[in-house]
Write a structure and sequence with these properties.
This protein is α+β, with helices and mostly antiparallel strands. It is built from three helices and four strands; from the N terminus they run H-E-E-H-E-E-H. The protein has a four-stranded mixed β-sheet, with helices on one face.
Length: about 90
Amino acid sequence: MTELTGTPVRTEMTAGNRRITSKHSDHRTVLVQAADGKPLNPCHPARARELLRKKRAVRVSRHPYTIRLLLQNQAETMILLYAEEESA
């Protein structure tokens, strides 16, 4: 009936159903680039701080905050980043 009468009704919000339709994203991620500049999966800010502190990455830009992995540590760092994703 709603498709004929006008604006669509979100079924997730009707009849008191308060189910969240999509995963909550608070946009607190750091973009990550490979040593050659290709984009990789983003990481958590704490992980980015750790990589910067251990000299495994350098900051590329501030808005959006982006880091670039250093070539000599890229393989080890990628393993850490993907292990973090799988545990989340």
